[in-house]
């Protein structure tokens, strides 16, 4: 097995993808809007990925609610963004936590029905007034303990609902003044001030999976962004105390195409080499390199460069997949109605 999660090109597996994935045996896959048409089509696609892997392979999706949602009407309902639960928390904390848990149960029921078993949620980034809007209303709010409480509610709902959650973007994306999809954010905040951003991740350090931030935190490592920094990965493991499966954010984001992101041989053309990007993230301490675009040439480069998955990473993956419960047959609409009843109280 190789320590990578791959995206796919379309609605079904191509012959080239089947051949590459058979040879590489990637640790898992991630779905995007381009891979989604109807419920039956998604079920067939996820079944084909499991058949190809010969195991209950992780199949990820970014289904947060609000503007980050791959599954949308008319086939699937809309879900609220994190900010909605944060606003309710200001008025009625216990109600907000329960509404957030019910929302996660609704998400879990929807995804499990489609054969998707990992949602890249909860987002634990503490919103900062000067931060780029790439986080914005996706965040639960500006108070770290509120973010932690609502993040825990999401994980509780996911676990009960039979899917795995991913906390992101560790060690915190809220202060970034740029969108890491487009450029490398550099956060110059002091170590003491950054402690506020770390609180939710410390509180939920027992989460099954986490995703790194493509951000340079000069107080932790002025030379390399978090995803490519052994110092920051060690900080995540030892100081924050996260012991679960750690994956990179998408290798295709332009933050990793910036020489200031670090991790590449000086004078090389490795910035354009996705194999080098994957290897740099794994060498830094990530368990999994995430590649989302489905670009076949980039995936082939990663397969050629990536090592066999190590025993420690494989054990963390197995533990993450064992973390989730079996779920139940409660319909999505029933969980959503219970959530909406609580949201209406505010």
TrEMBL record:
Q: Which reaction equation describes what this protein catalyses?
A: Hydrolysis of terminal non-reducing N-acetyl-D-hexosamine residues in N-acetyl-beta-D-hexosaminides
Question: Which keywords belong to this entry?
Answer: Glycosidase, Hydrolase
Q: Which GO terms describe its molecular function?
A: beta-N-acetylhexosaminidase activity
Give the matching Pfam families. Answer: Glyco_hydro_3
Q: Sorted alphabetically, which SUPFAM superfamilies does this protein's record hold?
A: (Trans)glycosidases (SSF51445)
Could you tell me the EC number(s) of this protein? 3.2.1.52
Membrane-crossing ranges are none
Keyword field contains Ubl conjugation: no
Q: Name one GO biological process term.
A: carbohydrate metabolic process
Highest taxon of source: Bacteria
Q: Which residues form the Glycoside hydrolase family 3 N-terminal domain?
A: 16-305
Family named by the database record: Belongs to the glycosyl hydrolase 3 family.
User: Would you tell me the protein name for this molecule?
Assistant: beta-N-acetylhexosaminidase
